[in-house]
Model the fold of this input.
Amino acid sequence: MKTSFVTGATGQDGSYLIRKLLSEGRRVCALVRRSSTSNMSRLADLTPGRQENGAELQFVPGDLTDGAGLIGILETYEPDEIFNLAAQSDVRESFNVPELTGNVDGLGTLRLLEGIRRLGLEKKTRFYQASTSELFGDVREKPQRETTPFAPRSPYAIAKLYAYWTTVNYREAYGIFACNGILFNHESPLRGENFVTRKITRGAARIREGLQETLRMGNIDSRRDWGHAEDYVEGMFLMLQQDSPDDYVLATGEQHSVREFLEIVFRDLDYDLVWRGTGVDEKGVDRRSGKTLVEIAPEFFRPTEVNYLCGDSSKAREKLGWRPKHSFETLVQDMLKNDVELAKRERANN
Ligand code: NAP
Ligand code: G4F
Done:
């Protein structure tokens, strides 16, 4: 039985990836960091121990800032695969906590790779690094692919750049099977509520149920290539099952603005959203009732913004056979259905 070690297990991607690995019959060691209130909500339905298909799940306490602890874990489990998903992953927040972001997202990756090397696991342990389309930042090419130059625009992206090159360096210097998945934005009903898609589906559903007045948004003209997290963890898994290590972009190739996302979600909730005013005074108003649904709030602007991301994932499609199953429409439906049910339950409990 292969052993997979997953960091970031309690996050959106961790939750989908653990299910995938268990379905593949893996023994999964899932890193969970200490918190004063439970951070296990996305894994609540999973029971540790032996699963029906013979797979096994274990939760392991630890933190990416604790190198000695990580080495102890690697020594104990000698994993066949490491999926390094743990990160301070909020781009806006990284401007507030740049040092912490560098420590977790940058040095955390180094700690794991150095652990592999020091324990002599170079030939045994395969390594996946959760790299990001944020690396392309102030984009130098459209669409962005593996060969597009990087131009990071946030402490988050700069920390991830360090992690990207550390992964490449440990592959070249020590022969470790180490891969970067350069993933464009991927969302789901399990997405953190601070990220824009979930903020919109959750907020709009709450407005519909009378639980919230308006949505306060930042730069609504920003454009993203949004896919479904369930599809993207399939790509992560495939990268570590190849004959040789490489770096791959995962993206849909389809792009929408935050403004379009708002329009689609409110339309699906039977509002007729129209835009009035300009700049920070712009408002999204329901034409029928005259109610203001969207306001611009400058505190959500970033000191430096990534305005445009759209990926070319031809390499992953050709070499890994990766194909997303979800469309943009099914992604929005999946998220909205979940958040409408959540808002209805919330209203019933009020
Ligand atoms: P997420 O939901 O924010 O999850 C982040 C995970 O990292 C959580 O489990 C969190 O634990 C954990 N974590 C944070 N700091 C840690 C530390 N010091 N030690 C150990 N664990 C720590 O992120 P996600 O959307 O699943 O993304 C997964 C990874 O892919 C991240 O590295 C992200 O940067 C990267 N990425 C994401 C996207 C995307 O669109 N989702 C695109 C490209 C790359 P708690 O639950 O305790 O907070
Ligand atoms: O949803 P976002 O916060 O995601 P962002 O910054 O693109 O980062 C996410 O995707 C990256 C992959 O490209 C990951 F590496 C990263 O970990 C994270 O998962 O913001 C998307 C866009 C931005 O341009 C932002 O300025 O939406 C814009 N936006 C407009 N109003 C907003 C808001 N973003 C947030 N979070 N909240 C707003 O009110």
Q: What stands out?
A: Residues 328-349 form the longest helix (22 residues). The pocket of NAP (ligand 1) is lined by residues 7-14, 31, 33, 35, 39, 63-65, 85-89, 104, 130, 132, 183, 185-186, 192 (CB under 6 Å). The radius of gyration is 21 Å. The longest strand covers residues 126-132.
